[in-house]
Design goal:
Layout (H helix, E strand, L loop, with lengths): L10 H21 L1 H20 L5 H13 L20 H18 L9 H5 L21 H16 L10 H10 L10 H11 L6 H22 L10 H11 L5 H8 L3 H12 L12 H8 L1 H14 L7 H27 L5 H10 L2 H11 L9 H22 L4 H9 L11 H13 L3 H6 L4 H13 L11 H10 L2
Helix pairs in contact: 1-2, 1-3, 2-3, 2-6, 6-7, 9-18, 10-11, 10-14, 11-13, 12-13, 12-14, 13-14, 14-16, 15-16, 15-17, 15-20, 15-22, 17-18, 18-19, 20-23
The structure holds fe (ii) ion (3 copies).
The site of one fe (ii) ion (FE2) has 5 residues, from loops.
């Protein structure tokens, strides 16, 4: 394989190349969506094939994957309408097809990152017996990458071609290809090709995602191990929160006691004052000081707001793609917290402020894990799709451990441990039910979300009203899960 400038372990060496390749592929997709899908399948299958048989080293394989994505780049310059033609091709069309490997190289040679991919792009239509194009190369004079790509390119064209009635099944395509061994295709590759296609049942799994999943599993196991053995230092809840909690627990605590603690942190103080000024907390006169803000909010609400402000810093990381995930998680946590409080208020549960905190901390395990991932040097390679399933699976136990270390009581750790459940009974704590209900509302499934209307409060109110009249919900149907949970929540 041609020399290349990638280093598998250094994302900076290949991230720009990958992003540029994706840009080219999406431009191809604008010309013809089927062509884009074809390039992605060819790249995924060829690179997975090379990996399965230990061809090329890790760095070269990355470059080979890019050549798969880019092999048909030359079609960007194809005449208008070539891809949707039903009539016979014109001379101009035929010329564009013949030229596409060379045109592709001309376009891609402007980018030094694609240097190693160029020979593969140029020769992906060469035949083993020398009857191919553009250069009529034969045998091992054709780069190995191009010989492999030629196979998978052909396979994809005959099994997923434009005309449905002409498509071959995988088995038919394999027989066809076996018949062309030594002619069109490198005979040494054919047995491996057949083995590969049969072992994958023809699926074209996402090569990068698969690599990442393996990497994520290893990284994840070591994070969990470090966390439970105490080697990974979890983010600290600011001291101010503990001090406030202790003061509020005392029966004789005063506004003055709280003010003394809060005034040591000007950022939190200012934010607290601005929250107290907001129209949500109605009262006489303007709030200009901590002493005025605390009574306006009440002790518990003050604590809740301080925890929310202090918590925000947990969601801050440097790596850009983790910042996006953590920002989303922050919004989710904050929305959850307010929705929980609202549900608790509507249902007249005692202590809505504590339930607010429960909503805020229910996914704290995800925060810890995302932060730990963001500190792994190779993090830029990680796609969210590869990380999130692992995080989803472990976030409850990690969150549980963290809240224990932070000194939150069992009522909190129970919510963290059980909030994703669906097995609720009349023995289940009301707090867990409230967090569970509001998660349904903000849940990822649009169908579920749609069933609950605009706000958690309106859903709960509607159900509460319906029940008073003894009717069940509107139209007597309603989501059974929600209905059951609401019944369990009835005071
Ligand atoms: Fe091609
Ligand atoms: Fe192709
Ligand atoms: Fe969760």
């Amino acid at each position: 394989m041609a020399p290349n400038s990638f280093n598998n372990d250094d994302p900076e060496s290949w991230q720009p190349a990958l992003e540029t390749a994706m840009l080219v592929v999406s431009m191809l997709g604008e010309r013809d969506n089927r062509l884009r899908a074809h390039c992605e399948r060819v790249a995924n299958r060829s690179a997975s094939f090379a990996e399965a048989f230990g061809l090329f080293n890790d760095d070269e394989r990355l470059s080979f994957y890019l050549s798969g994505l880019l092999h048909d780049t030359g079609y960007i310059a194809a005449p208008e309408g070539l891809f949707s033609k039903t009539q016979p091709l014109s001379d101009e069309d035929r010329l564009a097809i013949k030229k596409h490997p060379v045109t592709g190289v001309t376009i891609l040679s402007n980018y030094r990152w694609f240097e190693a991919a160029l020979p593969v792009v140029r020769h992906h239509h060469e035949a083993f017996d020398g009857s191919g194009w553009p250069d009529g190369k034969s045998g091992e004079a054709i780069p190995l990458g191009a010989r492999i790509l030629h196979l998978f390119d052909y396979f994809d064209r005959v099994t997923a071609g434009r005309r449905e009635e002409e498509r071959l099944t995988m088995e038919q395509a394999i027989i066809d290809i076996q018949g062309k061994a030594g002619g069109e295709f490198d005979p040494a590759l054919i047995p491996k090709f057949v083995e590969f296609m049969q072992s994958t049942s023809g699926a074209a799994e996402d090569f990068l995602l698969k690599k990442q999943t393996v990497f994520v599993k290893q990284a994840f196991a070591s994070i969990l191990q470090k966390f439970s053995s105490g080697k990974l230092v979890p983010p600290a809840m600011p001291q101010i929160v503990f001090e406030l909690r202790n003061i509020i627990k005392r029966p004789d605590s005063s506004v003055k006691d709280l003010t003394e603690v809060l005034e040591r942190d000007p950022v939190i103080s200012l934010r607290l004052i601005s929250v107290a000024k907001s129209p949500v907390y109605k009262g006489q006169g303007d709030v200009k000081s901590i002493q005025a803000a605390i009574p306006r909010l009440g002790f518990k609400e003050t604590l809740g707001v301080v925890v929310a402000i202090a918590n925000k810093s947990l969601y801050e990381v440097k790596a850009p793609q983790f910042r996006v995930l953590l920002d989303k998680l922050w919004v989710h946590s904050l929305v959850s917290a307010y929705a929980c409080k609202l549900i608790a208020q509507v249902l007249g549960l005692k202590d809505p402020e504590t339930i607010f905190l429960m909503g805020l901390t229910h996914d704290v395990g995800k925060v810890v894990l995302l932060r730990a991932f963001s500190e792994i040097p190779q993090e830029e390679r990680l796609k969210a799709e590869a990380i999130m399933p692992a995080i989803q699976e472990a976030h409850q136990s990690v969150g549980n451990m963290l809240l224990k270390r932070w000194g939150f009581g069992e009522e909190f750790t129970r919510v963290v441990a059980l909030h994703e459940g669906s097995n609720f009974s009349d023995q289940t704590n009301k707090e867990i039910l409230v967090v569970g209900i509001q998660l349904l509302r903000v849940g990822r499934k649009r169908s579920r979300r749609a069933a609950f209307g605009a706000t958690a409060g309106s859903v709960v109110r509607r159900h509460a009203k319906g029940r008073r009249k003894g009717q069940g919900d509107r139209q007597g149907r309603g989501p059974p899960f929600l209905t059951r949970m609401l019944r369990l929540l009835r005071p």
